[in-house]
Amino acid sequence: MSGNSFGVLFRVTTFGESHGKALGAVVEGCPPGLTLSEEYIQKEVDKRRSKEFIGQTPRKEKDRVEILSGVFEGYTTGTPIGILVYNTDVKSSAYQQLKEVFRPGHADFTYHMKYGGFRDYRGGGRSSGRETVVRVAAGAVAKRVLEEYGISVVAYTIALGGVVAEKRDLEFIYQNHLYCPDEEAYLKMCQKIEEAVREGDSLGGVVEVLARGVPAGLGEPVFDKLEADLSKGLMSIGAVKGVEVGAGFKAAQLKGSENNDPISSHGFLKNDAGGILGGISSGQDIVLRVAVKPIPSIRKPQKTINLQKEELDLIIEGRHDVSAIPRIVPVVEAMVRIVLADHLLRQLAYLAFQQRLRFPNFWG
Amino acid sequence: MSGNSFGVLFRVTTFGESHGKALGAVVEGCPPGLTLSEEYIQKEVDKRRSKEFIGQTPRKEKDRVEILSGVFEGYTTGTPIGILVYNTDVKSSAYQQLKEVFRPGHADFTYHMKYGGFRDYRGGGRSSGRETVVRVAAGAVAKRVLEEYGISVVAYTIALGGVVAEKRDLEFIYQNHLYCPDEEAYLKMCQKIEEAVREGDSLGGVVEVLARGVPAGLGEPVFDKLEADLSKGLMSIGAVKGVEVGAGFKAAQLKGSENNDPISSHGFLKNDAGGILGGISSGQDIVLRVAVKPIPSIRKPQKTINLQKEELDLIIEGRHDVSAIPRIVPVVEAMVRIVLADHLLRQLAYLAFQQRLRFPNFWG
Amino acid sequence: MSGNSFGVLFRVTTFGESHGKALGAVVEGCPPGLTLSEEYIQKEVDKRRSKEFIGQTPRKEKDRVEILSGVFEGYTTGTPIGILVYNTDVKSSAYQQLKEVFRPGHADFTYHMKYGGFRDYRGGGRSSGRETVVRVAAGAVAKRVLEEYGISVVAYTIALGGVVAEKRDLEFIYQNHLYCPDEEAYLKMCQKIEEAVREGDSLGGVVEVLARGVPAGLGEPVFDKLEADLSKGLMSIGAVKGVEVGAGFKAAQLKGSENNDPISSHGFLKNDAGGILGGISSGQDIVLRVAVKPIPSIRKPQKTINLQKEELDLIIEGRHDVSAIPRIVPVVEAMVRIVLADHLLRQLAYLAFQQRLRFPNFWG
Amino acid sequence: MSGNSFGVLFRVTTFGESHGKALGAVVEGCPPGLTLSEEYIQKEVDKRRSKEFIGQTPRKEKDRVEILSGVFEGYTTGTPIGILVYNTDVKSSAYQQLKEVFRPGHADFTYHMKYGGFRDYRGGGRSSGRETVVRVAAGAVAKRVLEEYGISVVAYTIALGGVVAEKRDLEFIYQNHLYCPDEEAYLKMCQKIEEAVREGDSLGGVVEVLARGVPAGLGEPVFDKLEADLSKGLMSIGAVKGVEVGAGFKAAQLKGSENNDPISSHGFLKNDAGGILGGISSGQDIVLRVAVKPIPSIRKPQKTINLQKEELDLIIEGRHDVSAIPRIVPVVEAMVRIVLADHLLRQLAYLAFQQRLRFPNFWG
């Protein structure tokens, strides 16, 4: 029941449940001397908060980020950064009825089996999507690290409820609440959401993530390949059911002559590899996509059972989003940043050695 | 440049290059008292060897498995199992011409960048698919572990060169050299291979993997979720560009009412989750699929450059498969087994504690 | 700058500085179903607090323990236990004068060099003994785990300021504020403390730790041997400069015929091994000793320099203990418990496998 | 039963038993571009071989080192270095009588208990000191890494059989087969060995290890402190029962005014800290000492039991050293080098970041 830490040199550990006292993250390995503030982290966390839009939960957590350690007089010190988000808007009574019921598509049954019947059933406890609020906070620290190397990560919605975005208008992403890069698709997605709300149903989708400015050389074959760690990080997000890099599943239908990216004296001529070759970044943009399943909490009646194995028709009222999209978008960014920050540091160790980087000598 | 180990309690470390002296694996965490022989491991490794079929490399490594440690008088001792496979049929001269050329779709460029220009260019060195021979050997040890718990893993080809298998005839898998569960599809796939050989091109495909008998409770939220570790393991295989679990990318198009698996008093009524909920096995079959890109080594001319950034048209002669399928199939099985063996042991630790399992007392 | 986590299955991560907002620990791997309360943890933490005795700092932190996660309705849930202790009695102004001075025997210089000049100088920041308050809290969770297996750990002072305890009166330990098992020695130690206070100096000593009820079989050769992990845990405590197991350094002077512990049909006939053979617990008591250096903060003038390399005579006023003993005693217990809890779970994994422990089957 | 790997970035995994087919090490994280040959490693391994001296085993393993991977055309490639040493001079028959006997002071009993009765009893199997042959080989790779930074490590015998070396004549170390830095003490030690051989007994001792040229800044608080990892590494060597750094156990008797190392504008004025403050190297020499217990295999009769709990008097014939010293000396050096290489790389990661070290850009 370890398994709540991620990374080797840049390492994130999280704790906390949906309706517990607080959620927290410990971020190890952030180098010293970086400016970092609660405001900076808050900004990222706010991207994940539910907004005043149809289809988003009315649960309005303020999600106030507190830095408890690792930052002194505005600068990181190289020691672990403790981050806390207290749970405030907790309505646990709504979950009382669910105490002994296994909600389909949720982790109720598996948590029950794994933890021998001991679980915080309120809002899914540890399995709640709410856990990701501190991943986003940790990802903000990773963002600060990557900024220093000119590496940026952006995720956006390229499919929702069957509507597929054709365009990649990265400007438009921040002009719509679904983080969609295609205005036409965005409008159709909104319609799908309205339909789903009416039906008491939920929607799945696809999020694409793009990392730019990543230098060639990140990734540690043969197991800690860059795409392997990225996949692990992304697949560890609750609603994600698939990950692909570059051409991904489409590559399965291609021939080598089509899929290979030719190289000219100025660089690669296309990027079906998604910026990674042999587990190592190539210097091109890194492109991944994740499949997001529809939120399992729906108002439509569903067949299920309770602890006593009695069958029943479940209607979930509570406060729920219609889709993990768009709130999963900053979580995807966070996980990619955490992986890249870790691999940046890992490669820097060797790069420094290759250049026989000198240690500072105090005595001169 | 660590990153060559995988797992927590059941832990595999590999070493070796395609044209070096030998490839090896160290398997830690195999419990004592299991029968294990070179023959048992050899049988798995042989599944990965190239066969006398069109489209497969004439490089005929005998791939003789040697156990160096950890097994005594036919039984495992609980100490690390060292496994070695010497390289014998090494024709490095064919690679002399490739010494300073970056083959498109291969890791030549990224290895060059990561390792500061020091790399064993022969046959791709460490980045070669040949490295997987010892993964399969390690996977055989994991298979022995899982057998004791009635857990079986089988992988098979469900798409190749655009041909999609509709059936899941698991008997038929071992009656054809592509490990395809659909006879009709198999015949079409063979045609595709012949075409590709004629054209000097290569093919991608999709492999599905099915784990049966997995008890509920394996997987360690929130980062070492079962699908997260499975994804990492599978994505660390050279040619894999995508992983999905259960409905996978199809789930992105479904509604919650469609995607959720209802539960009756006798069990789940379907399995779109792919046997994992909230990162923990549910007791249902575990189902994953991986996208396999076409082999990058093709005879068709490709644009690329050499170390001096001179452009050239590359025709790769050498000895190459037309597709990573079917030889990747036992590698997929091996990685899934390694992950399951590790998580089986991890959960057993807690299960034992919950039951206050007693230690043997020698003194009585 | 990772390195703030310890353990494999039972895993502790800490964060926080002496004069920061709070100190925290995340405890992963505590099995579900154990009763656990803030009171239980508080009791252990209180053992570490300074008391109304001569030679102990008047800094009177209340050290209120808060459990933020992982416990629900009084029981552990198997999810990570977040523990927080807010810093309240913080007088940072006393440290203002030390901002640019390297205190001899402290980590000021090395932190300055390692972290590129960015450090929280107040009270030693992360290097402060105060960090151990959350180690003790985490150790309390480990204590709960070990209790279920009848394993107990007790540490006590066997030397202080040159006075050596001859007796091992374990009852007396809790009847004196130095946790000394020898009344006569205790009284002499008190005199030594008074002298040191008068002189403005500080004292070193030796703490012995005894683990009883440990079953045979804990420890993972060849690197994670039980004494290796115990040594790491103990050496990671600030003031510790040496660790020995069983006969320890005395064994260096013995012959094999003296040092070997003979075995009879009822058990070992003595215990110079200290309960560990070949890295694995033997079922006997585990006995270790740690050398504790004198507290480096003293009122006597000391030669040192500041950031500008100017020499100066330093007199440290502030609020300081005269010795890390006795407050280090519960820290030693905590670290030993954390190691034992981890190795207990690791061995249980294999023990469960050897017995083919069955998983619960919900469906019957 | 994992636990056979050590290190984070520079990571060593070992396998193999005393009388099995071979012993091996996998060294991950060695940077590319270093010259490395079997001869270089062999030279270190030869230091550990038994010599033609009284008190050393006549078992004369050739201990031929083979590099299987990770080195190409004389240079490391950054990929894992597989190292093998075949066992050749194996006389297992001598151990047949010991199959069911628990030798006092050996790991026979604890291995029996841990591994459920499955163990390779020949020569102690995995618990044999012979396992260290590949630690020394791995340490040779670490030596190559450290050389590039001008870091050197030397260990030597400062006590044997009660004789204590007063001098530290580092030149003399290589002029005597006990690696003793004091000629007078050396001669007395030789007498002690002769006595012990005559008596059929064995001797313990103390080895000191000195690391010079270590830059300030290595070590990762609060758990992976430099002395913590060094202690773990050293305590994982079979015969070691105690570790101390700097003044060590003597510090327990000192006052702060005595133990603290004053600092002048030219550096520290003494080195009782042993080169480490707060878990981080200070730039001074690193000094540690380990207590080595007497070899448990002696010809004198010892009381013990067999598997059936029958008591017996055991006389161990076989081929055995009289002391783990001097053959443990190169093992101590190896472990210290492995730890330093790992921490060198870990700190380089952050140093590189602090200097915003630029990645090479192929495209110009």
UniProtKB/TrEMBL annotation, chains A, B, C, D:
The keyword Ribonucleoprotein does not apply. Signal peptide: none annotated. Its cofactor is FMNH2. CDD domains: Chorismate_synthase. GO terms for biological process: amino acid biosynthetic process; aromatic amino acid family biosynthetic process; chorismate biosynthetic process. InterPro entries: Chorismate_synth (IPR000453), Chorismate_synth_AroC_sf (IPR035904), Chorismate_synthase_CS (IPR020541). Reduced FMN (FMNH(2)). It is an enzyme of class 4 (lyase). This is Chorismate synthase. It comes from Thermodesulfobacterium commune DSM 2178. The gene is aroC.
